[in-house]
Predict the 3D structure of the following.
Amino acid sequence: MEGELRDPTRRSWISAINLAEIVDVMTRVFEQTPDDVRSALELLEAGGLAVVPVDGDLGMEAGRLHARFYDRRTSPLSMADCVALASAMLLKEPLATSDPPLAAAARAVGVVVLPLPDTRGRSPAT
């Protein structure tokens, strides 16, 4: 799977909502300055990362996914998780994630999952 993530011929995508999550976590949790976060993201974009705008079609699909898969105890998917999954579905691309409920939902709708390790080094089951 790592080879797929590092393949220079593949385009990497992130939705604008998930980009907002990264900015939030990097500034609030990891205490990076907004300018440092912007610089890091600009490097990723220069390397080929594309930002997917959230439009009505993506919003509708994310809402349908949330309604189908969300359960507070067994599948605590955020709306942003569902936006990431909807983006992968609409772009017909794999979804890279370390989140087990998101990986399970992705597999349930036929999206290929590229499992990433979480902060403890565990990846979602394949």
About this structure: Helices lie at 2-6, 16-28, 34-46, 56-69, 79-91, 100-108. Strands lie at 12-15, 49-52, 95-97, 113-115.
